[in-house]
Amino acid sequence: MHQHKVLVEFKEAHIGYGSKIVVRGLSLTVEEGGLTVLLGPNGSGKSTIMKAIFGSARVIKGQLIVNGSVAYAPAELDGLVNLTVLETVKTARRGYRWVNDEEAKRALREIGIINLANSRLSELSTGQKRLTMIARAMASGADLILIDEPTANLDPGNRRRIIELILRLSKQGTVMVATHDVDIALAAKQVVMVKDGYVIGVGEPNQVVTEEKLTQLYGIRARLIKENNEEHVVFPLN
To answer: Pick from 2, 182, 213, 229: most CB atoms within 10 A?
Structure first.
C-alpha cells in the first residue's frame, strides 16, 4: 500500500499567542493530498491551528512538525488594499524568491479571475478578494495551502464557486480549510471538529459529521438530509 507523506503533525500541542493558550492538547496528522477541514464555531481555535502551521501562532507546549512549504490565504486582508490583484499575487513567495508575472497570471487564470488582474483590491467584492488571496497562495507552489473562513459573509453564488474551487484544488494538492461551513466538511478527506480550544472529533466525514456531533459542536439541533445523492446539514428553528 502506498504511504502518503506526512506534511503536518501536532503532538499534544498547546497553541496560542505569547503566553495565552487558545488550543489545548492537539494531536493531529495531515497527510499529503486531499482536503482537511477544521470545523467549528467562531472563536473555537480553528484559525489559531492554521496560524501555528504557518508560523504566526506559537506552540507553547508539545510539538509541531511541518514537512514542506506552506501558503496561507487569510479571511481578512491587511495592508494590501492599495495593490492591484496582480500585484497582490506577486507578493507571494515561491521558495526563496517572489512570484513572477507569469506565475501570478497563471494562478489568476486557473482561479478564473485574470480579468481582474489590474483591478485594485479596494474595488473588489468580498468574494473576489477571497479568490485573489487563494490565487496568491496557489501561485506560491506550496506543498500545503491553508484557507481561512473562505465562505464567510458570501452570497450563495460566490459561496458555491469558492467551495467548487477548494474541491478542485484539493484534487491537485493538499488543502486545509478553517470554516464553520458544514457543506465543505462533508466533501473533505479528513474533518477536525474544534470547540472551545479542544478537538472533539477527528476522522472521515461519515465518521465525524453526525447529527449528534454537530449538535454538540454548535449547541443547537442539527439534521443531516440527503437530496440528489448529496448530503447537507440543516439547523431547524423548531
So the answer is: 182
